[in-house]
């Protein structure tokens, strides 16, 4: 199995797809408390409390540096993760000095179209940690993920300059330091659409891939679409993704899942559900996954007025467009009774069941309405739209205010990289690594 360091790991979306392709994270780094718990529980990782280690209060600190094949998840600020610590863990715990690839999706709020996009935001430069650690361990490859908004982000007042600067930094030549070359800077090449790879969601993300220059002839090809127009399969729709789940109402929760997958005749839907059920890509053994149960399937208990508002919004409409239709139909009394004075087009959008979803974000609880029921989606339904399988364990509170430092389940899921998108990229990375290391056994797909 090939190995990675999984920086800004989130709840483990990229990790899941990479493990499906045969790439195992030896080290992961994440700062958010509940997100760390989600990753550790699902992937059987050991949690290493960075701050306690640095101030000398970490109990049995030496035990983390003894031989062990479990991923070590560093819980703390990546800026404080020194290269010497990374090397010590690799050497003492795993018996290696490097990994095959360093990955990371630095927090994207300042790059996002929805964010304030401040030029002087410290988060703009968190990506430097990915390069710092890759150079420290001399990894063969680097993968950097971010939002489409990075393409137009300003630097020194010039739109798009931030993207150029990040690309330049990847290829900067430093003395006595490993040097990397980007596979491509072309925006159309590096921007991938999740829907093209079996994810039931119109999500766009950019992926920069760099190869260590000492492997001069190595090549990487961005994955060809597997779904959509001209591809082998049609897109996976919202109905394909979530309508097999128990149709619970607002305020309800269930752990019982008795859907018979043998009743599914649509091959695209069947393939997706086999992944979700842990059939085609088995669940980790330590989870003892029971396919007759479902977790995180709990619907928010909406006020009656909110349920009435949702009932007035049709598939494909949002709060704003629903009001426009009601106005045209001379039903202004319903607008006055159930809608706020300020209408947001991104809020209360009812999904169209016969199409892929719009982008899942960390605000998905407020943004998405079930295609048939008058309620927001449950975390499990959102996880399905992100292509997280049903065996995935999400830890922490269901709902917190968005500004709360604790990431609730919706925010964890909304911020993640879809596992199926990560898997398709990872398959191409494995091909590149197979060409770089021809003496290693040809890498087959792995089990999470």
Automatic annotation (TrEMBL):
GO terms of biological process kind: DNA restriction-modification system; methylation; negative regulation of gene expression via chromosomal CpG island methylation
Range of residues in the leader sequence: none
EC number: 2.1.1.37
Keywords: Methyltransferase, Restriction system, S-adenosyl-L-methionine, Transferase
First-tier enzyme category under EC: transferase
Residue ranges of coiled coil: none
Protein name as catalogued: Cytosine-specific methyltransferase
